[in-house]
């Protein structure tokens, strides 16, 4: 059992229709604490202003490390028997280069993933959804090793570990300090409350707060009228464990719906192109 299991069980109870996809997510989460991922985390690079640690990194990953995880994720996806996920059976039967898929997902390169899906004849959305989970155990290991080295003056809207845009923000404790959370590596970084993580604007006239109808009192949506980006914000006593961030993001999907209905959206891709190399 892991500390993410209660969150998974809650989601299965609240959204039984999600259980096929949650089984895929659970397969990924079961890998997060495996020591084998810690062994391939490179030494922490020297901190650089505005540059995530993984940018330009040289990663050496054996296919034998990635192949079993990909096979497990695809297997669980196919078990869902949904038409789109069922097409992923072709992945298991193909000569797909696992390192290529891992790298495309690590870089959040949707164009490359679309090309791979087309070459395999599988549903593009299904492949992108499963591929997005592939580097998460590695990224979580990077966060375990590097989180104490994050610059205290990091002021960017993207994750200082992996360059991903935030999944949500947490306003913590009596001090009401605002921390952005990464849905991939589980990292956290502090950012000023009155600022947009995407375009950096601090003009309060351009920043609005949305509240979901019948929503909890500790939840709002911070949105930017300039770039039309948004961030879900949870007021809490303490931050979620890194492995649970992805579940908290899923559990609050109704807030994403509210934001979309008002014309706001999360930016596509990552906040910083990593340009990392992945080799055997």
Which descriptors would you attach to this protein?
alpha/beta, 280 residues, two-stranded parallel sheet, FdhE-like fold
Describe the model.
The protein is an alpha/beta fold. It has two domains: 5-138, no CATH class; 149-261, Alpha-Beta Complex (FdhE-like fold), CATH 3.90.1670.10. It is built from twelve helices and eight strands. The protein has helices at residues 5-14, 19-29, 35-38, 63-79, 83-86, 89-92, 98-106, 110-120, 124-131, 136-146, 245-251, 253-261, and strands at residues 58-60, 166-172, 177-182, 188-190, 207-210, 219-224, 230-236, 277-279. The strands form two sheets. Strands 4-3-2-7-6-5 form a six-stranded mixed β-sheet, with helices on one face. Helix 2 packs antiparallel against helix 4 and helix 8 packs across helix 9 (124-131). It is globular.
Beta-strand content bin: 5-15%
Oligomer: single chain
In spatial order, strands of the major sheet run: 4-3-2-7-6-5
Note the overall shape. globular
**Roughly how many Å apart are the termini?**
32 Å
Count of domains: 2
Structural class: alpha/beta
Radius of gyration: 19 Å
Uncertain ranges: none
SSE arrangement, N to C: HHHEHHHHHHHEEEEEEHHE
Helix percent band: 25-40%
Count of alpha/pi helices: 12
How can the largest sheet be summarized? Answer: 6 strands, mixed
* Average pLDDT taken over every residue: 93
- Strand tally is 8
């Amino acid at each position: 059992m892991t500390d993410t299991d209660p969150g998974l069980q809650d989601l299965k109870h609240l959204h039984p229709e999600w259980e096929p996809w949650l089984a895929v997510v659970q397969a990924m989460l079961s890998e997060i604490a495996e020591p084998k991922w810690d062994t391939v985390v490179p030494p922490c690079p020297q901190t650089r202003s505005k540059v995530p640690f993984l940018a330009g990194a040289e990663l050496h990953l054996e296919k034998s490390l990635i192949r079993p995880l990909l096979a497990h994720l695809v297997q669980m996806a196919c078990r869902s028997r949904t038409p789109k996920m069922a097409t992923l059976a072709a992945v298991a039967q193909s000569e797909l280069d696992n390192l290529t898929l891992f790298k495309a997902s690590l870089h959040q390169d949707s164009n490359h993933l679309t090309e791979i899906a087309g070459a395999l004849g599988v549903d593009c959305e299904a492949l992108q959804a499963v591929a997005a989970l592939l580097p998460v155990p590695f990224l979580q290991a990077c966060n375990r090793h590097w989180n104490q080295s994050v610059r205290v003056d990091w002021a960017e809207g993207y994750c200082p570990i992996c360059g991903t845009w935030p999944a949500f923000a947490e306003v913590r404790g009596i001090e009401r300090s605002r921390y952005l959370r990464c849905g991939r590596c589980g990292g956290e970084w502090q950012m000023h409350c009155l600022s947009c993580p995407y375009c950096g604007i601090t003009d309060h006239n351009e920043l609005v707060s949305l509240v979901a109808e019948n929503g909890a009192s500790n939840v709002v949506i911070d949105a930017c009228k300039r770039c039309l980006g948004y961030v879900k914000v949870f007021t809490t006593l303490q931050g979620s464990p890194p492995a649970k961030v992805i579940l908290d993001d899923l559990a609050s999907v109704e807030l994403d719906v509210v934001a979309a209905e008002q014309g706001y959206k999360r930016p596509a891709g990552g906040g910083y192109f990593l340009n990392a190399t992945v080799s055997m």
